[in-house]
Amino acid sequence: MGELDLSPTPLAGVIRVQRHSQADARGTFARLFCAEALAPAGWRGAIAQINHSVTALCGTVRGLHYQQAPFAEMKLVSCVRGRVWDVALDLRRDSPTFGQWHAQELSPESGVAMLIPHGCAHGFQALSDDAQLIYCHSAPYAPQAQQGIFAGDPQLAIAWPLPIHQLSERDAALPVLGADFMGLAP
């Protein structure tokens, strides 16, 4: 009941998680997280933190965020209201997909979530007003380790579906991925 199916994406270690909901006259039931089911994809231990993000306006971009080691985190990102275009950017120096990105549309109707490994930056664009995400994190937030890459970095050429707007001051000030960036250590 409420199984999770895992499938690889073109980005090494980024996993598409498909939920299967059960429906009856009362409504539906779907499993949002299962450590045992996610273990083959690299999830270790319990959830350290769960966050709920509400994005008011369609077109808003949040990210691209990550935490540096030793506070690096794995994230399971699920959309529970509206629609988002979820992006993972591979920053792992030894990865075969270093510097590449993958995007997946998430919505409650699709039942799709993204599992984003340590060493990848994450961001999303709201494709509807009142888009809401639930993030399950493998490590707690560590403000001293927070980092990011500017979502509009021309070198990355992320194909955002809508024009970028409503960036926070912090996100607008994030650096581009410079040619001297050697990647994150494993």
Helix segment tally: 2
**Alpha-carbon distance between the two ends:** 35 Å
CATH superfamily: Jelly Rolls
The low-confidence runs, each spanning 5 or more residues with pLDDT under 50, are none
- Most strands sheet: 6 strands, antiparallel
| Strand count | 13
Identify the overall geometry: globular
- What proportion strand? 35-45%
Mean pLDDT: 94
Number of domains: 1
In the CATH hierarchy, the third-tier topology is known as: Jelly Rolls
Rg calc: 16 Å
CATH class: Mainly Beta
Subunit organisation of the chains: single chain
Please bin the fraction of helical residues. under 10%
> By helix and strand content, what is the structural category?
mainly beta
Order of helices and strands: EEEEHEEEEEEEEEH
Detailed description of the structure:
The chain is mainly beta. The chain is built from 2 helices and 13 strands, in the order E-E-E-E-H-E-E-E-E-E-E-E-E-E-H. The strands form 3 sheets. The protein has a 6-stranded antiparallel beta sheet, with no helix packed on it. Strand 3 and strand 4 form a beta hairpin.
Name a few traits of the molecule.
186 residues, 4% helix, mainly beta, five-stranded antiparallel β-sheet, 13 strands, globular, six-stranded antiparallel β-sheet, 2 helices, Jelly Rolls
